[in-house]
Amino acid sequence: xxxxxxxPPTGDPSAPDPPxxxxxxxxxxxxxxxxxxxxxxxxxxxxxxxxxxxxxxxxRTCPRRALPGGDVGPRETLAQSARRHxxxxxxxxGLAHIEQLSVFSAPHRVPGxxxxxxxxxxxxxxxxxxxxxxxxxxxxVDALDPVTGPLVHDHGKIVDAARQxxxxxxxYTNIAFALAPRQFAMSELSEIYCxxxxxxxxxxxxxxxxxxxxxxxxxxTVGRTGRNGGRPPALYRxxxxxLRVTDEFAxxxxxx
Amino acid sequence: xxxxxxxPPTGDPSAPDPPxxxxxxxxxxxxxxxxxxxxxxxxxxxxxxxxxxxxxxxxRTCPRRALPGGDVGPRETLAQSARRHxxxxxxxxGLAHIEQLSVFSAPHRVPGxxxxxxxxxxxxxxxxxxxxxxxxxxxxVDALDPVTGPLVHDHGKIVDAARQxxxxxxxYTNIAFALAPRQFAMSELSEIYCxxxxxxxxxxxxxxxxxxxxxxxxxxTVGRTGRNGGRPPALYRxxxxxLRVTDEFAxxxxxx
DNA sequence: TCAAAAGTGTTCGTAGTACACCCATGT
DNA sequence: ACATGGGTGTACTACGAACACTTTTGA
Lengths: 256, 256
Fold this sequence. Notes:
The structure is a homodimer of 256-residue chains. Chain A has 256 residues and is an alpha+beta fold.
């Protein structure tokens, strides 16, 4: 699924590759944050947003939209490179999680020099306030194809892969720690799950599941009640602040 | 986990990368097959084996061991490149499945030119007979570190990553189709699961789980009884011959 | 006192495990 | 017939989903 089903090689498939062939390796990152959509027209329910950038620089009427990234430096790993390129747009210290997605290697996925893209998924807690430079913006992922045109090159596919990865890991890991604030009411966490998954999640059951797995723990403190009254919520936090698999081997697990 | 925690870059981390820096991209594949270990001393229970190759050519007394692979050609995707390099050792048409693993990019993971490795997991059905050239061999994965020395460079880590990926997907996908023969008794399939997972799997329950999920279906035919008598087994086959997720979202699944 | 939000308890369905028991074959 | 492996049936456990009911606040 990562590699597009490119047509079979037209040249001699067993030709030894010239060691000096021009070859670029770029790193592209899909960074997500759940944020209450900028327009305050609606009763803004939080939405999953992705960080996009205009590759031609800011200030256009109809900017092209691309994922942030760039080339790999000679002395850095790919993960370090991803962080370095993201530092142009946001405070990378706030990035709570970053992990590798697949490599996109179709020979002509971008025009010009043969460019292989190693892609990353990054997550930013919902309470991290970012000051984006010109040409960068948070775009709700469910408003991508229809409204603004498609993304540059194959970046749309990369965002899709990132969404799928996130949705899957929400189900069997504690990855939501990287999308949630340090402390939160279960209703807030539920909204984050809803935004990331795209469907409703029962708040009470979410608490039960995550408690049993010891993914979240109560802090003992309570938060403030909402605008229209209601009982003040207990506050929780994630037990770990790094990825942990919580439901490995749902089936075919080792005996005992 | 894919990128080793390399030391922070020593040079200027924000230096723009020279577009003509020497950079190699290699493809490495961990190909697995469950095979009844060559030595006929034991009551040979099948074991998970990985295809290794002596990078210095065959005929050594104490060969080094490495994963098969090599550089990417200018007109091929990484997956195509993986298949091309594997063709030196086996009939790639027999490879029932191949998928991307992570990228290994530590700056000095191999000496000399900066080399980034894109890695693949390949699976060969247990009944595929292979005629390996000199210098290539099937090595049981549980006999890697202790007996023969470690693998070259970081290839040991790559094999570990491949094993983990396989074990995980055995639990929630139909990936075993790529390790099993076209037709098989459930006891054979059970042995394959045992070999790949490293622990015992109950044959009767395996049938139930895989039947309910419509992963395997009965062919209606029966096989021959074993060496010491016993009821002849019903034969089964996998419903699909391509990867399918069978247990997506074990928890937090969409309503209805 | 009423609405709104949070939290608790209960019921239900279902998937997976363990294990006993029955079936079919070769010797 | 009997040992050997294959297959079926059943009971048990656990987890997650749904939903009703209770609790705590603000207006």
